């Protein structure tokens, strides 16, 4: 069993006093201005600004807010900031461990403290999509009567996972994934601020790059890894968090991979060429490197879809549906679970019979078109549905294939310039052998041969 990625964080405590909070908690923003990322939500006059009473327009009218976005991008943080800015009591529950009983207890407490007339408690409910419809229904009275300001967080599409009455009474805010620049600003702030590491160690460029890779857009993971690395460096008496120290601290080797440089294209090329060469183990290696480097899973999925047609084609007609299904699944679930889906598709494509007949066929056809080999469409194939078409001879003499035995009519379909040219030359690999046999018969029938 691989060790927990961040077990070192629990072991290396030298960077903070015993009993103090973890770095990720200490660096939690205290105001909206300290929040990294989410610029679209933090503009002057935005609903979030108005929710905390900024902008001169007073608080936003909604008594419930739903924060939708991937893990580790600041949903809990925003809820905490709202409670601090409005000087309300902050109560946090998770739908994973809490039920209707716990929610009602918070609501009753809020009613007692406020006398039932003012909203002075922020109830943050994490993972609200895990609540059943009946459990979500229990929140409606508190929202409608404004006994609490409900801020609910979800990683699932709220239009599918949250009941309509609650959704219609809520301000829905969609959070965007944190960029590397967002995380870089957060890490550098944590290194220097007094509540963070207070300049105890430095973070070289290569170590910072590795932290960004392993964080995968998750601020909490980035800060936890930084804390682990800093604790390990201080324990060794080092003044900076070297890459080797950081690797040891987070139990993961750094991947030599630059998403914006040559390595991005080299590793992607190696993945496709390994699939083309049917080396499933090499393909999985390059896939793992891309995943560890924080590559966009959608980019990997697109490459697999291209490979399915470029290198497999009709030798395995299921290859493209497999790749497309993988791309759709990746879009729905994201990392880390998407690594399983990408692995599934990579293995299937690597072990599939190979044919580039689809690639060469369209390549040859495009070459002829670009060379000017086009010519007019044969008259009997032209549109004959408009008035006057018959006078022009359009659609005259066309033989309807469904009216002839076998469904194949012996007539010319291609323009004269390329009549008789063959673009698709199927291989005898896998399922394409069947297409090769069929094609020989079809071409003979088209030519009038029996």
TrEMBL record:
UniProt name for this protein: Replication-associated recombination protein A
Lineage top rank: taxon: Bacteria
GO molecular function, one term: DNA binding
Keyword field: ATP-binding, Nucleotide-binding
Positions of the AAA+ ATPase domain: 61-182
Ranges in a coiled coil: none
Family of this protein: Belongs to the AAA ATPase family. RarA/MGS1/WRNIP1 subfamily.
Biological processes annotated in GO: DNA synthesis involved in DNA repair; DNA-templated DNA replication
UniProt keyword Transcription regulation present: no
